[in-house]
Amino acid sequence: MSKFIYIYNGPATPMDQFTEEQSAAEMAKWGAWMGKVGSAMLDGGAPFGARASLVDNGTSGEPSLLQGYTIVEAADLDAAKALAEGHPFLSEGNGRFSLEIFELVDMAM
């Protein structure tokens, strides 16, 4: 089994800008998806907060719209993609949000 990281990208609304009802509804969606993934979820992750972008020429860049991460375990990339089915970040359907999946390569020597 391999570990995969999901990176969430898009113009998400910060949770502190939701009403109590909206927050509860969002958390319910995430809870349902995480429950479906079950034991394949190694790290539920977290949203990203304050951000900066530093460039190798000493300047500052424009931070991206990366919003958070989750780490799952799966047999291969196709299995990791299948675990993303029903993910709340992909529910809008307007192409503004994406979920990038990367295999975490073991660097042990």
Automatic annotation (TrEMBL):
Q: Which InterPro entries match?
A: Dimeric_a/b-barrel (IPR011008), YCII (IPR005545)
Source organism superkingdom: Bacteria
- Describe the location of the YCII-related domain by residue ranges: 5-93
What is the protein's name according to its record?
Answer: YCII-related domain-containing protein
For this chain, the family text in UniProt reads: Belongs to the YciI family.
- Pfam families, per the entry: YCII
